[in-house]
Amino acid sequence: xxxxxxxxxxxxxxxxxxxAGLIVGAQREDLGGRVDLIITNGRVFTGAGEDVAEAIAVxxxxxxxxxSNREIKRLRRAQTLMLDAHGASVLPGxxxxxxxxxxxxxxxxxxxxxxxxxxxxxxxxxxxxxKAHPDSTWIRGHDWPSALxxxxxxxxxxxxxxxxxxxxxxxTGDGRAAWANDRALExxxxxxxxxxxxxxxxxxxxxxGELTGVLMDSAQELxxxxxxxxxxxxxLEGLQTAIREAHSAGVTSVHSIGDTxxxxxxxxxxxxxxxxxxxxxxxxAVTPTGGQAQTDRLKALRARYPDDPVLKAGAALVTLDxxxxxxxxxxxxxxxxxxxxxxxxLDARGWQTLIEAPTEAGVAAALxxxxxxxxxxxxxxxxxxxRIEQVNGLDAELAARMARLGVTASIRPTGExxxxxxxxxVADAGARVTFGSDWPSSILDPRRGLAAAQPGExxxxxxxxxxxxxxxxxxxxxxxxAVDAYTSAAAWTSFDDQRKGxxxxxxxxxxxxxxxxxxxPGTPLMDVxxxxxxxxxxxxxxxxxxxxxx
Length: 550
What we know:
Elements: H1 2-32, E1 37-40, E2 43-45, E3 52-53, E4 55-59, E5 62-67, H2 69-73, E6 81-84, E7 89-92, E8 94-99, H3 101-107, E9 111-112, H4 119-132, E10 139-144, E11 168-172, E12 177-180, H5 182-188, E13 200-204, E14 211-217, H6 221-224, H7 232-248, E15 251-259, H8 261-272, E16 279-286, H9 291-304, E17 311-319, H10 329-348, E18 352-356, H11 360-376, E19 387-389, H12 396-405, E20 408-411, H13 417-429, E21 433-435, H14 446-451, H15 479-486, H16 488-493, E22 511-514, E23 530-535, E24 538-542
Parallel strand pairs: 1-6, 2-7, 8-15, 9-10, 10-11, 15-16, 16-17, 17-18, 18-19, 19-20, 20-21
Antiparallel strand pairs: 1-4, 2-3, 4-5, 7-22, 11-12, 12-14, 13-14, 22-23, 23-24
Helix pairs in contact: 3-7, 7-8, 10-11, 11-12, 12-13
């Protein structure tokens, strides 16, 4: 008996020594390697219900350790870049699950007028761009500050001397207004006698009736129709501008909806040079009538853009039009049958489907199709992560069915009241929720999505301005859940949860440092800014010390 007891004691001692050695070895491994970046004094939201930490150490493009200030500061080396979060929230990089990146790159082709806060600054940027692009037939500009008056540019000769023979078209950052010079108006066929279109205004001098060049809302389309398609070089410039805009909002990953092979080629051009500093999960558009040509195209795209941390294809976008799900009789049955066969076909080949269903009937039809695919096909090796996009037509029964089928709801939280209601219903039902802005049709600003988590608030254009981090009064409406919708849940739904969406050892170093701690009750979310955005372990955006609230 004594001999057996001695043996047990020896085993325990040896086991304890081995474990201690492993711990020490791991610590020495951390202490012995390089540490490129350290963030301290933060409220580090690690993600998905994990504990909050104080500091992060980054090695290369991955997170080395997450822990207390004391633990992480011990890893500092001579070359380590130190960032102090000053008590603010530190989050995983935001992932917007519904954007149109190709359209954003087209809209942002031309002169970037962001922060051009005076007529002289606008003139200088346009003049520099015109000299650098002598072959551009049009001079386009985007993100004109809305507060800057158009009046000075509508004065004859202000821009004509800079670009005497080329049309100029400048759009505000909010997309509500544009200014066109005389040459652009002429090519668009706009005269003083042209009536304003429905939903827009051709602004004229109230005294003389002459054109001012200012076009409001839908009136811009009169010039847009005359614009030539941007060149590949212009689109690349626009893509880089769009990426910088994403960085300023703390967005490090997007799911780009409705892409074509040409769009993927555009992204790949930057990826090949290491300049695609935005993780892109591309969803290509498909139709029930695509046939063999569509099948071949999908197969080729997935082969060319396989799983990759920066750029990959793997999702198929299926759009239900206004008639789908709302038709009656044989038409509705035919639509439902086509949808079910398409989803089953894609599911059998391992494609994730993103189904745009704008109505309650459409959501029901989409769920019918997913359920049939689950019953017909064996589960793919990587599992199923089908989604319904821009969900707003929903009731509690459909929300519960989404949870049961494992279907994710991608919601535009800054939309109408029904969008916010959908978030609450799906969250309470236990289904997975992700947030997508529909950028560039809507503003790329995760703060607005986070505001959707607040009880009694609707994250629309006006109400969101007053949103604050009030304590939740209903299950599923916590701010933490909203952050998950932009991070860990979004990473899961693109099959990337093994490498991003959380701040943990071995995960990609995509990190956002805010200017305040958003989890302090009463913090106005719209007053909190993005201080620093880190992509792949490198700082890609730093807030200007003089900048105001975004």
